Amino acid sequence: MSLSGMARRELTIFLNLWLVPLVLFGVLPTRADLLVSSFNNGRVYRFNEHTGQYIDTFVPNTNGIIALPHGLAFGPDGNLYVASAGNDAVLRYNGTNGAFLNVFVASMAGGLDYPVWLEFRGESLYVSSQLNDQVLRYNAANGAFEGALVSSNSNGGLNGPSGMTWGRDGHLYVVGRFGNHVMRYDGTNGNFIDAFVPAGMGGLAQPFGCKFGPDGNLYIASGNNSRVVRFNGTNGTPLGDFTMGGLSFPIGLEFGPDTNLYVASFSNNRIVRFNGVTGALIGDFVTAGVTGLSGPNFMVFHDFGPPRINSIVRAQTNVVISWSGRVDTQLQSTTNLAPPSWQNMPETLGRNSATNNNSNAARFYRLIRD
Length: 370
Fold this sequence. Notes:
By secondary structure, the protein is mainly beta. The protein is built from no helices and 32 strands.
């Protein structure tokens, strides 16, 4: 595995002496793993942010509570929230290890009907409720229903809200899956402003996810014609197809830490990567059906932080090092930091512990992640 300087994370360095280990910290580039909802089997998978390698099934759904997972969002408490469309609820999971915490928004609370996308903003959680054409608001701390930001009685004709996002103007943009449009609402009171993208404009056909890109323009996944369409971020004017090729019924899209565009291709079970400036196809980031990924729809990038050594314990003349293992994490050591000469410790890639029996001399340890 290639571990070039900018392609890896590293943080924890321990000095192995006969006394207490010394911990040193470094400054790291921003990175983020990719989490993907797997619609057909009710799971959330995690992939390496650099290589697309499968890391783990972050939410294995062993309790069977998730039904048809859609949007993912990390809340202000650092935990993961999942829109469970099949049972009209929002579920909360531990943001570090994916353990189930609770049903955050109870089934059909406030009239929730097929939740698709989640957005935390201020002290509220906003949820697109697709089958009754509303955007509902819940307390971000306890999930209590706070009312409809966009109600079915005053939504300007919104039909099948799916993806949504706040713009730089502070207003809320909501994709209407069944209306093939994008509606804009006052971000404070939910009043209808306009059809930012009128029905069918730019060739939209059953649109789902939407994102404002680094260039300030609006990108929308158009499912039925398998492309991502770009619109002027100020006035909604169509700017043409941004991507073509590699997609089959795209749903969610995200701009990654590398500024490229990642699209969940539902019907062929892939995550496809495109150049974030030109839209040129780079290729599959996650190949078809990896580890059971089935019907990927919505995604989120999240920084889980650098790898950390949890403990160093001396056992007679041996040293036992323990850490939270991942398939992309390697333990290294050196006896000299000036200049450092790091060596991979054998058979530690993807494990969570190692024993070093060469412990008579001072030795430094660190974890690196591709």
